[in-house]
Amino acid sequence: MDRFRRFDEAYYHRFYEDPKTRVTSADEHAALSEFVFAFARYNQIEVKSVLDIGAGVGHWKRWIEKNTKGVAYVGTEVSQAMCKKYGFSHRDIARWRDRKKHDLIVCQGVLQYLPDPDVAPAVANIAAMSKGLVYLEVTTRLDLRERCDQTRTDADIHVRNGSYYRGILNKHFLNIGCGLWWSKEREVPFFELEMSG
After folding, report:
1. Lower CB count within 10 Å: N or C terminus of the chain?
2. Is 129 in a helix, a strand, or coil?
3. Helix, strand, or coil here: 106?
4. 52 forms bridges with which residues in the sheet?
5. 34-39 long-range Cβ contacts below 8 angstroms, 24+ apart
6. What does the radius of gyration of the chain's CA atoms come to, in whole angstroms?
7. Model confidence pLDDT, tens digit, residues 78-111
């Protein structure tokens, strides 16, 4: 995994720990975690296991440990430094597939770092490990141009259109909005207009 060498402690300090340059704080991230778990509760989707792909500085891990009971959490990372610091498993989602399935899979800020040949295998691996609900966040070309704070966002990524990711994701998942996706292998628990397509 030498291709991920750039994800050292300095990278995570700049984008996730330093209050002057970080993309988000733990408190800001907590609102996202609350939203995803509230969405699952509202739709009667049981979340007893979470797989966090690209777990970074452990925002999801800490929130889950603090705010949920009986939820098994597994975090994976390509960064040796973060694996050592937080106890994550050293995994590359394009080349690894867990034998277990997980109620919720989080893949936040990962796919934009993968080269083109690795994106479809990564999404297929996520789909194979999903019991249903996936939270996915990817920076797109439009995001970089119109939405991202350029002083805090890592622009050293594979810049792609949203349609590129949708084309790959739609093979395995239904888009239910706000970064949430549902496995096509599972019965759909949502009303028709609660889904985007």
Report:
1. C
2. helix
3. strand
4. 75, 106
5. 34/67, 35/178, 36/104, 36/106, 36/135, 36/180, 37/67, 37/68, 39/178, 39/180
6. 16
7. 999 999 999 999 999 999 999 999 999 999 999 9
